[in-house]
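Onboarding guide, step 5: your first structure request.
Type a short instruction followed by the sequence, for example:

Predict the 3D structure of this protein.
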Amino acid sequence: MPPQAGLAVLSKEEMAEKRAATKAAQDALREERDAVKAAEAELTSWRTSLTAEQMQAEAAALTSKLADLQRRLEPLKTGAVLVSAADKAAAEKALATNLEHWRKRRSIFKNIWSTMSESIEGRKEAEVFEEMGVDTDEAVGADLKGLEGLAGAKRRRF
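The system replies with structure tokens like these:
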């Protein structure tokens, strides 16, 4: 603090006036800060809102999307059958047949591989498959059991 020895001493009335003036100045400052915060908040909201042109463009895009979706929905509302029962049955039969072939070939390969792998020592199965060019179900992400679920309970064995 600077030395205050040379300063004049204020009377009680002058001190009260100075305190009142300081309080009034602080109140005015507080009000100005609040007004500035409100103005900044309003400015931020104006900056984040869309312009009229942007709103019109977005409305046009949504209108075209709605028309497209309604066009796609119309055949579904009319109950039109897009796939005939015969086509569906043929597809299910083809799926069941192909799954059965897959299952048989997989079983044959596993039998042959178990015989071959007995004589291979010191090498990992994945390395041998890579060298031979064999793609396993796991390597390609195929799931026989998952696809069998598509065939359903009506699966026939041929």
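Each response can be followed by summary notes, for example: Helices lie at 12-48, 52-77, 85-119, 125-132, 137-140, 144-151.
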